[in-house]
Design goal:
mainly beta, four-stranded mixed sheet, 1 helix, binds zinc ion
Length: 81
Amino acid sequence: MTKLEVIETPAGHMFCPRHEVTGVRIPMRLNDVDFAKVDRGLWRAEVTDQKTGKRYKVKGASCGFPRCMCDAVITHEFKAS
Ligand SMILES: [Zn+2]
């Protein structure tokens, strides 16, 4: 079983959700506020990568095991304005 890929670092919380369309994992750094939105199961959130300032919509997702929702996917990538 895969785990939600979250690693605690002094500079923030590393978070590596998979892109819904491409399947590619995008590593990002979340602040405490955004990180608190990230959970297991059915959830949706908008988060900001503290490294790049890019915003993403993410949601809980299955890791591939039936009924297991331990993963996360990016459903939308906001274009930089
Ligand atoms: Zn799982």
